[in-house]
Write a structure and sequence with these properties.
The protein is mostly helical. Helices cover 34% and strands 0% of the residues. The protein is elongated, with a radius of gyration of 40 Å.
Length: 131
């Protein structure tokens, strides 16, 4: 062995053979031959779809009415699915019908846009028209 801080001597052939033997012995001790294989239950299995243009996928099959009804019910908006809101966030905007009818002749509740000098000035880009 080399002294502290000195250079190491290069390993000779006997020493390299002993290191190789020790490494192989450790590897063989840990190796096991597995002949029975199964699916790992802890890992999710993903289904692989078929090719889109294959003949067996394009065979017409009768549609299951119950299944289609379940799919269409799930796609409905919450106001059509349920009679009342299911969460507090659904309460906002649940009733979309106006409380009063819109009467455009009633000036108290209807405020249409009007064109004034200020709105025409801002619509022109803030520059007065030159004549």
């Amino acid at each position: 062995m080399a002294a502290r801080g000195g250079k190491k001597e290069p390993p000779d052939a006997v020493h390299l053979n002993r290191l190789l033997y020790e490494r192989m012995r450790k590897e063989l001790r840990c190796q096991r031959l597995h002949t029975e294989h199964s699916i790992n239950p802890l890992r999710p299995v993903h289904a692989v779809t078929q090719k889109p243009m294959s003949w067996h996928d394009n065979i017409e099959e009768p549609a299951d009415a119950r299944f289609l009804n379940i799919i269409h019910q799930a796609a409905l908006e919450p106001t059509k699915k349920y009679s009342e809101p299911q969460t507090e966030s659904q309460e906002i905007g649940w009733n979309t019908t106006p409380l009063t009818d819109v009467d455009r002749t009633d000036r108290r509740l209807f405020f249409p846009r009007r064109r004034t000098e200020i709105t025409m000035h801002s619509a022109a880009g803030g520059h007065p028209k030159k004549q």
